[in-house]
Design a protein that fits this description.
Number of strands of chain A: 8
CATH architecture of chain A: Roll
CATH class of chain A: Alpha Beta
Oligomer: homodimer
Order of helices and strands of chain A: HEEHEEEEEEH
CATH topology of chain A: Ubiquitin-like (UB roll)
Number of helices of chain A: 3
Radius of gyration of chain A: 15 Å
Strand order of the largest sheet of chain A: 2-1-6-5
Structural class of chain A: mainly beta
Largest interface: A-B, 36 and 36 residues
Largest sheet of chain A: 4 strands, mixed
Chain lengths: ~130, ~130
């Protein structure tokens, strides 16, 4: 009966790309993927759950690090093939490198410059 | 010699997903895809060029509507498989429906509520 799920155009692998934006700073934290089950769990639990394409399994963001993402809103684009999630980022760290955002490299003079400092050593996060 | 391009992990179709964020409002405007040629053109011309998966061709955003996107920055994520583009949106309209952003539907009570007004009738934009 969840017709809102049927309005989504899942790709041929049954996935949809997800843009993750921090609700207070409006900063883009990461880009991930969800399948139907991940989106249902995210909506029901209010905590971001993604589909790991490398591990081929559901992945509750922060399950190891504690850096969970509390869902503020779930939006859909005009083509119904991308989700925008706004979240509160626990610990202020979304990236597995220990940085605030995964988008910490910026193109400057044909090189990817690192523009964000590591907040916490990954060895301390994932121990 | 453009080694910055070789650092990118293109998917099996030679594409990378692109998050498009408005630089002044920090609003997410749209989600699109680029191939290597689109990214080179975007970088060189300073105007967003995407790869249209439906038309299988390069697509300069705004070529018909005039709503071009002037590039402010190009960033890459930790996995090197997503681009974040910040832009100045000409005309303040990124969506083909005539709205500011493509993400104009928000999940409320198991329904996708329309949260943004149409700024300009698409019939006037694409005539």
């Amino acid at each position: 009966m969840a017709s809102w799920l049927d309005e989504i155009k899942w790709n041929k692998d049954g996935l949809i790309p997800v843009i993750v934006q921090e609700s207070n700073s409006l900063k883009i934290l990461m880009h991930a993927w969800m399948n139907r089950e991940a989106l249902v769990k995210t909506h029901e639990d209010g905590v971001a759950v993604y589909w790991s394409r490398s591990r081929q399994s559901l992945w509750t963001k922060g399950e190891t690090s504690g850096h969970i993402q509390k869902v503020e809103s779930i939006s859909l684009d005009c083509d119904a093939d991308t989700i925008l999630l706004t979240v509160k980022q626990e610990g202020g760290i979304a990236c597995h490198t220990g940085r605030h955002s995964c988008f910490y490299r910026r193109l400057v003079d044909e090189k990817w410059d690192i523009t964000e400092a590591i907040i916490k050593d990954p060895k301390e996060i994932y121990q």
